[in-house]
Structure formats: C-alpha cells, structure tokens
Amino acid sequence: MSAAREAETASTARTRSDRPAPAITPGVRRTLRRGRTWIVIALALLAGALVLVVVQGAVRAPGSPLAADNPAPGGAQALARVLADRGVEVGQVRSLDGALDAARGGATILLHDDLGVLDRERVRELASVADRIVVARPDFAALEVLAPGVRLAGAAGDAPADAACALPAADRAGALSDGQRLLAIDDDAEASGFAGCFPSGDGFAVVAGTSPDGAEVVLVGATTPFANETIDEAGNAALAIGLLGERDAVAWYLPGPGDADAADAPSLAELTPGWVSPVLVLLVVVTVAAGIWRGRRFGPLVVEDLPVHVPASETGEGRARLYARGSARLRSLDQLRIGSIRRLAAALRLPRSAEVDAVVAAAASTTGRPAASVRALLVDAEPQGDRDLVRLARDLDGLERAVHAAISPDQALEATDPTGRRP
Amino acid sequence: MALTGRFSLLVALGVVPVVLLGSDAGAAWAALVVWLVVAIGLGAIDLAIAASPRLIAVERELPPRLRLGETVRSELVLRNLGRRRLRAEVRDGWPPSAGVHGRNRARVDVPAAEGRRVVLALTPTRRGDRVTGAVTVRSHGPLGLWARQATLAAPGRIRVLPPFHSRAHLPSRLTRLRELDGRTPILIRGQGTEFDSLREYVRGDDVRSIDWRATARRSDPESPGSAKLMVRTWRPERDRRIVIVVDTSRTAAARIGDEPRLDTAYEAALLLAALATHAGDRVDLLLWDRRLRGRVHGASGPDLLARMVDAMADVDAELIEADWAGVPAQIRGVTSRRALVVLLTAADSTGSARGLLSVLPGLASRHRVVVASVADPTLEAAVRRRDELADVYAAAAAERTRLDADRVAAAVRRLGASTVAAGPADLPPALADRYLELKAAGQL
C-alpha cells in the first residue's frame, strides 16, 4: 500500500488554532431536547398502560380454573369463602398425596382435573380411600373408574329446571343455570345405583351413585355450578354448597403437574446441562453487541451528486428498434440507399447535386454491371421480406466496394476519405 | 457512543465461566449475570475515561486545485485540547469520487495538548469541486471496549480541473504555427495579414508582390543593370480575437466513446486556446446554456489556461435546452471587433440545431464562425455491418443519424459558417488544424 495514511507529529511552527472544531453531532442534552416530544409521548403511553394494568387487576397471574384462591371469573374463591364462613374447613391440595391424606381424614374431595393429568390408577387409588368425591366436569378416565356405565353426553340445550331426583342438594337447588354439560346413564350403571338429576333430553346434569370402590360419588357435568362467574345464577350456589357442605372438611383437589403419569420420565431441562440456557442468552447478547459494533455508522453519510451522462448511441439504437418493430423495410433500405448514393457520387467525382440517374450510369459503367440491375438496387427494388431486405442491404455494400475497387484497386475501402478528397 | 469488537469478544468469553459453573443451572445463570455486569461495567468505565472527541481543534492543509488524474496529499492536523490522552480513529468525510486511497480510517494517539497529522492520498475520479464537510472522530478508552464518537465540522474543498490530455498535440501544432508566423514570412497578401519586410526577389516569388517603389529606391542610377527587384513579405496578423462558446446544455451530456461531449469540448477549447495564445491572439471563453455558466475574458499567456480550467472545472452539462438567441449578445459583450467565433456544440439533428441555425446568419455576418461538434465514431462501423436483420436496421438507423448530421452541417455551411466534426479523440487536433488553416489563409 502507498503511504496513504500515516501519523506524525505536527510541526510546531504552524499557526495554532486553540478553539475546538464545532461538533455537528448533537450532544446528549441537545438530543434530549430535540426528541422531547417523542420522549413525552412514550412516557405518557407507558404511564397509561401501567394505569390500565393496575385498574384491570391483570397484574396478578391468572390462577388455575376452579381454584379455591382464584377470584377470576373461572375460579371458585366465592364458593370456598362461603363454605369457610359456614364452618367448613376448606383446604386446597395440588398433589395426590395431599388429597389422599385429606380423604383419610374424612374430607369431601372436590376433584377437578382440568388438564386430564390423572390416569386411571390414581383415580382408583383416590376412590378407594375417599368416602365422598364430587367431580366437576369428569373426564373419560374418571368416569370409567368412578362410574362405569356413565357416559359424556354433550352440552345441554337449555337450563334444566327440575331436579327430579332424590339427591337432597339437587332437590334444594331446584333449578340450574345455562351451560350445563350432560351425562348419560346406561342400564348397567342404573342397575349399580347411579341416578341422575336435572334431566335434559337423554342426559342429566348431575349424576350421583356409589363407585365400585365404595366411595360416594357425585358427578357434575359442568363447572358452572362452582365457578365465580355463574355461581349466583339459578340454583347453582345451592347445589354447590349442598354438595360440598355436607361434611366438616373439603379438600379442593386440582391435580398438579406432579401427578402426571409422565412425571417419572426426565424432562428436557433435566437432560441438558445447566449451562445451555445461559449460553443461549449469552449468544443473543453477543449478537446484539456485535450488531452494534458493526452497525454503528462512522459519521454521517456523504452525499455525492453525480452528473448526468447519456450514451449518445442510444437514440440510434432506439430508432433501429422502432424500424424493426414496425418492419419498416423499405424505409430502412431507403436510408441505406441515400447514404450509398451520396458516397458513390463522391467516389465517382460527381457533384453533390448529381441526379440519381447519373450516379447509376456512372456506377454501372465503372463496375461493368448492367445499368438496370444497378438502378434496381439503388432505386427500384422493394424488399419483399426480411431475407430480401438483408440481401439488398448486402448488395448495396457490395456495389460500393466494387465501385471503390474499380476506381482505386490498391486502396482498401476504409482508407478512402468519405468527403472524396485525395489524401 | 460505539462498541468495539473487543467488547463483543469480552462478552463472548463469558461462555467459559458459564460452562465451567454449568453443572448447576442456578450457578450458571449467576455466572452469566455477573459476567455481563462486569463487562458492561468495564465498558462504562472505559467510556468515562475516554477523551472527549469534541475537544479537538482541526486544521486542514489541502492544495486548492489539481488536474484530474493527479494525486494530492490531504493533511489533517488534530490538536487535542482536552486533558486526557486521545486514542481515536479518524474518518475524513470525502465523497467516493474524491478517490481516497485505502480505508479512510486513520488511528491517532494524541497526548493532551499535542497535535498529530493524518495524511490521506487523494486521486479524484471526476472533474469538479470535491467537498468534505466534516471529520468523524471515534475516541476509544484505554481498554478499547466502548468509544465516544462525534462529527466535527471541518470544511475542505479541492477543485479538480479538466485533464487537458490534448496538450500532447500542442508541440506539433506550435511547429506549424511557427512556420506560418513571422519567422517564415509569406508572400500572399490578404485580409488578416500585415506588412513584414522587404527583401530581394528570388525565383519562385509571386511577381505580384514586387514592390516597384522599393526596387526603384534600391537601384543604382550610376550602374544600370544592377537593379535588384524587391518584394514585400507579409505575415499573419496578430492580436486577433477568438471567442470560444461551449454549449453546456443537454446535448453536451451525451457520452460518446469514453467521455461526455462536454469534456471533449473542453479539451478542444483548451488546445485551441493554448495554440492561439502562443500565436499572439486573444482568447475569450463562454460557457453557455440558458445562462452564462462561466466566462473567461481578458486573460492572456499562462494565466489564460489556468483561468479557463478553473472556470470549466465545476461546470457540468444540465438537462435543459440551449438558448442560442442569447449567444450573440454575450459575444458582443466580449468583443466588438470581428472575431473568430468557435461554437462547440452538437450539431447532429435538425430538431435540436434549429436554435443554432437561427442565430448563425447574424453571427456569420459579423464574425468568422466555426461550428465544431463531436461525431460518433461507432456510426461508421454500424453502417458497414449488415450481417443479419437487426444489423441492417441498426445500419439504417446509423445512416439516418449521419444523414441528419450531414444535413445540419450543410445548413451551417450555407449560412456562412464552417464546420468541424470528428470523434472524441480527433476533435481537438482537428479544431486546432482548422484554426491554423484560417490563420495561414489570413482569414481570421
């Protein structure tokens, strides 16, 4: 590389300027002042969002559905509070062991397996220990173990208005709200003692009976009688309190992830070493840092105003394309003929104003060709097609060469002065 | 503010402690957080220690002008006015056409209250003014992790002059000029010649130039027969005026060969001016489209060429139609005497030449007018190529272009002006030759 760049000590003899050069880059204060409007807008938006979040109470993480401590519409805190006020001991358990302990203590078990984590074995284990189980929205596995012969039968079309059964709680409730889900009882189940309440079509919203393991089982098709949102509708509250308030204690059993069957298998987090996630985060940080490193511009862009340069041959090319698109064969040939006649006249020492006939005659006599063919080539012939046009154009060139060769056999065509002057 | 590659590397090295402590996820997360805090803390400290890039005095040393194709040194003196040592990268804001050699990123290390010089080599790639407005300084801390950056106003301007390649033709033309000039007197009397001397008749001289009175004075009455015939000699007149008008309108933007018409016109104008000023004539230059873009008047000798290139340097063709009606007034403003008016334009199509043709009669009646234009040398080859259909159409179009140019040239000649047309490389010498012909014929 040439000595393009070098740093050396400045000579001291020069006139020193001791004032710093004015900075074009705005300082921090100026940037803040210039972006004041946007900063204020951003802060206002942020504050508004915060206020909204606080007002809506959405800051709290959503609890599980039907949890005893969940005040959200899908929770069941209202029911738990009412039961506690009435002297019923309400305990929430998230594991099978806790539920088994409570069941041994004689508590009513409220089972709501929202995610279907409990398998048949665990339900059976629970049923064998518990005396009384209330199942909200039973799933297929729970039905099979607790109440064989009871099937899921879809959603109810209307609100069941008549308990029509001997269950005291149902009888007291009298009617239920909309949104019930139905359970059907087949003959085997009916024979083993299962009875339905609140009939709607072929199904019942509530089914009571005794499980094969000996537990007293109440199956409620939907969660609506328990949920905060709907507990105050129709006889929902009466049904829920009646079902759960029979004994002194209620264990609110919502199976957690630990109760799942797959809990024994190692999770992805246990299989990978502990440093993998931090390293991934570190990679992201490094990527951002490298992006800032490479992306930070070294000063403002430099503007360069370029002059306009148009290739002069473009007009000629455009005209040629116009001729070709319009198939202007005769017109194109005429241009070539005019040029040829001019050059021939100059070569044959005829005046610029010479008639075409004179040029034809002179060219014919010079080359020894018949005048008629020369005249046809220079004036008369009309190209009948593309092939004809190319042939005529070549013949024109050939005639010019022949004339030049006849006049001065030694000279090549290119060496001839087009103005006709002798060099 | 700016980050460096070293900082990115430092952050990336956090992989080592994170993996070493990685048996436990909690320890790995803690290691990550601690590492990031340490890295950012080091960066912040580095930034705080870095010298301010705003406390710098900038001086430029730059030659005011150079010819296109030459290389100059652009020097920048940075004086550190702060109290801290400045370790910085410096970028000078030259546009790409200034042709900076290398990467334009100079590293300087300036102790407090000292100065350092940054030298760049520039080889501009285009004619005209190259302007830089600012110098960007990125000041690194001692650790080289984070940097402060500021752009400082430091205006600089360098004028790139037309290259004048055609000066290669000057020596041969000067030789021919000397043959015409007083050193070889001529015997043809005519307009534009002035009396030079009397000398004895030698065989071959034009008998019409015999001066009988001088012969009578020289003859000795005592010895008849000793009479010597004397002839008068003439030499081309000096101090004629030449006005060169360069058309900078849209037709000058067309590129023929390697350069736009305008650059060829500049070359031709420079060669003609160099020749004419040697011949003792006075040259004026007008750059014109719809307004006067540049003018050189009343300069002579070496000053003339310097002022001409200076006027030409920053003028580029504009995409507007030339207003030829204003040209006669401009020429009248330069000289009231009869002059040789050289119009450097593009007389190639009847449409665009109409304005030119309308003012030619008036100009030609007062001055001797030469219309010089650049011809496209590729047309000749295009006319000859007739291999296939597309070639034939291209040949027809090229022929049409040439016929148009011929027609305009014929019209120009009919209106009393003469024409010079040649390719980009040949136009300057062709115009110079035309000038020499006119001078030899005493027609200036």
Automatic annotation (TrEMBL), chain B:
The chain crosses the membrane at residues 32-57. This is DUF58 domain-containing protein. Residues 198-378 form the DUF58 domain. Keywords: Membrane, Transmembrane, Transmembrane helix. It comes from Agromyces kandeliae. The keyword Transmembrane helix applies. It comes from the Bacteria.
